[in-house]
Specification:
The complex is a heterodimer. Chain A is mostly helical. Chain A is built from 14 helices and no strands. Chain A has two domains: 2-49; 68-285, MetI-like (MetI-like fold, Orthogonal Bundle), CATH 1.10.3720. The relative contact order of chain A is 0.12. The chains are: A mainly alpha, B alpha+beta. The interface between A and B is medium-sized, with 23 and 32 residues.
């Protein structure tokens, strides 16, 4: 009798919860596996990478592929480092410009009432309502006309047209949520309009600024189609195009390719891990009584 | 401290007058409440004094300086906001220090002033906290502290108590009043709560529809409202207004109702009623000035009890008199029931008469 009552008191298994967990684990494997394979392959020799059945774990793991790519005295290393620096330059400049332009633009859209405000805000967002590839040919013609083909300027301009609308829209949401009384209080406390913005409002919008930065950086860092179309000289190429070219020329060098792609993913991961801390902290610090 | 003068101040949004030619003078050390229903232009008026929004016309003077075209930072004012507007990313200490830092005071000066203000408001133990870690009452104190730390010419307060719960509100009300007395500060205080205005202010400015309706001491506004709006806005429960028709009977005037009863007016009140533009006259009576009888007495008019609300000390009754609601306060011992017919006697000395056309008070 007592054992029956014991079992009936036991918590029933929540199958719904259980199946959710199983699904998450499967999803995780699906996401992680290609990345794990990328890292594993990058540690193999060229011969080991081609074996069948595949080696699940390299019998003779090697860092040769990384050393080759990072050695500026070799052609392949020189190219890879150049692509890497090009990508850093394009992405950083795009990010900085996006923030510098989007912050005042979003603030203006949020705070000031000027003629055509609604229309202009719509116009800003209009660009993002179309697939990016639609603008490929028109933008190429425009860049040629401007003499910007084969320069990083063409990419930075293009990436800004993708990144800015979303950045402005995102930041406007942040400014809308910051009570105007905070600025008014600051102005009464002796701040100029600009100081009120710079000392009070901008720090409060830092989660938005960080999110905007991450978005712009990753967008620019990963972009392929425009970089492929606008750049055709080795010394201006960015990583996605450069790696693709590397792949085309050395079709069998899988370990080298994997090492390159792994290194390409490092800055994004590091950026996200470092800034995520600030992102969360900034979000929890707001707390204004409405 | 300094006096504040508003001269013919106008603020328009498109064709709408948010503030319509408002003129008033706040004397040095005076506590003035701007009071009115929401949307009456009181907060807009305060923002114009603060310089937070551009004026459409008129002038504002603080002390002997015209500040109409000055930035808020140059007006030497302090403001307390309804939502306190504490800087959420700064500690209480830095919230208090901010106005002093903006004025480039030395670190030691800032520290001594912040400590002094914190001591006055009893928030010294909170200085290292962030605003979100404080209760509503504590945030309110910090907001006051940030205003007084700088020793400004005028304090502007925009509904500073309306985010507090009822009990705390009463407590902070007396603290702000005390604060005014101790500092002899010039304060302009915006509220929609006429009780706050009446209890705290030296003078109250009643606003409606962008117009300044009446500007006087609370006692005078209460005793001599200039029009029907002010009469019904100030006082709780509100003054009851009964629309009637005036008719002459010999030398005297009687007010007649649609139901057919007549209320003879005293000679003084007859004089007033004769000044109305038409025969439409509105009778105004405060709850404490009318008497309720169970049976007809000379000069009384009939009414029907609508609701009875005992509060302990006093019982409030609402009585239908000529299809208008009349508030009456009664001793708790008086027992009346809803739908009972009662007889109302008005105090001729303390009744108010308004012109039914212009809604303005009729004077003798």
């Amino acid at each position: 009798m007592s054992s029956v009552s014991m079992t009936s008191r036991r918590k029933p298994i929540d199958w719904w919860r259980m199946s959710g967990r199983v699904f998450l684990v499967l999803l995780l494997i699906f996401t992680i596996l290609p990345m794990a394979w990328m890292v594993i392959t990058s540690l193999k020799t060229g011969f080991a990478a081609m074996q069948y059945p595949p080696q699940w774990w390299p019998t003779e793991p090697t860092l040769d592929n990384y050393i080759r790519l990072l050695d500026p005295s070799q052609n392949i290393g020189r190219d890879f480092l150049r692509y890497f620096l090009n990508s850093i330059f394009v992405s950083v400049v795009t990010t900085v410009l996006a923030v510098v332009i989007a912050v005042p633009a979003a603030y203006a859209f949020s705070r000031f009432h000027f003629p055509g405000r609604t229309f202009m805000f719509f116009a800003v967002l209009l660009r993002n309502m179309f697939p990016a590839v639609i603008f490929l040919v028109p933008l190429f013609i425009l860049m040629r006309w401007l003499g910007l083909v084969n320069t990083h300027g063409s990419l930075i301009l293009t990436y800004l047209t993708f990144g800015l609308p979303l950045a402005i829209w995102l930041l406007k949401g942040f400014y809308d949520n910051i009570p105007i009384q905070l600025e008014q209080a600051a102005r009464i406390d002796g701040a100029t309009r600009f100081q009120a913005f710079f000392l009070i409002v901008m720090p409060l919008s830092s989660p938005g600024i960080i999110a905007t930065s991450i978005y712009s950086f990753i967008g620019a860092w990963n972009e392929y189609i425009y970089a492929y179309t606008f750049l055709n000289k080795n010394d201006t190429m960015t990583l996605p195009v450069g790696i693709q070219r590397f792949f085309a020329e050395n079709a069998t060098d899988w370990p080298g390719l994997m090492a390159a792609t792994f290194m390409m993913s490092i800055p994004v991961v590091v950026l996200f891990l470092v800034l995520q801390k600030y992102f969360v902290r900034a979000l929890t610090e707001g707390a204004v009584k409405h | 401290m300094a006096e504040v003068v508003l001269k013919d101040v106008v603020k328009t949004y498109g064709n709408i007058f948010a503030v319509n030619h408002v003129s008033l003078k706040v004397a040095d050390g005076e506590f003035v409440a701007l009071v009115g229903p929401s949307g009456c232009g009181k907060t807009t008026t305060l923002n114009l004094v603060a310089g937070l929004i551009p004026m459409s016309g008129g002038d504002v003077m603080i002390g002997d300086r015209v500040v109409t075209d000055l930035d808020p930072k140059d007006r030497d004012i302090a403001m307390v906001f309804q939502n306190y507007a504490l800087y959420p990313n700064k500690s209480v200490y830095n919230n208090l220090a901010f106005p002093l830092q903006m004025r480039k005071l030395s670190k030691s000066e800032i520290d001594s002033k912040v400590q002094a203000a914190a001591k006055v408001l009893d928030i010294t133990h909170l200085l290292q906290r962030k605003p979100r870690e404080l209760s509503g009452g504590q945030q309110q104190r910090v907001a006051l502290g940030r205003a007084l730390v700088r020793d400004p010419k005028v304090f502007l307060m925009d509904e500073p108590l309306s985010n507090l719960d009822a009990k705390l509100r009463v407590q902070m009300r007396s603290e702000i009043k005390r604060f005014h007395q101790d500092l002899n500060a010039t304060i302009i205080y915006v509220t929609h709560d006429q009780l706050e205005a009446v209890t705290m202010a030296d003078k109250m400015a009643v606003m409606n529809g962008g117009f300044l309706q009446q500007y006087d001491t609370p006692a005078n506004v209460f005793a001599h409202p200039v029009n029907m709006f002010v009469a019904s806005f100030v006082g709780s429960p509100a003054m009851s207004l009964i629309p009637l028709t005036a008719a002459t009977k010999g030398t005297d005037v009687v007010l007649t109702s649609a139901e057919g009863w007549e209320l003879p007016l005293s000679p003084v009140n007859s004089q007033k009623a004769l000044k109305a533009k038409s025969n439409k006259v509105v009778l105004g009576a405060r709850h404490s000035t009318v008497r309720l009888h169970k049976s007809q007495v000379p000069g009384s008019v009939p009414g029907k009890v609508y609701t009875v609300e005992p509060t302990g000390d006093v019982t409030f009754a609402q009585v239908f008199v000529s299809s208008a609601i009349l508030n009456i306060s009664l001793a708790p011992s008086v027992v009346i029931r809803p739908d009972e017919t009662v007889f109302i006697e008005f105090d001729q000395e303390r009744m108010h008469l308004f012109d039914g056309e212009t809604e303005m008070a009729l004077a003798g």
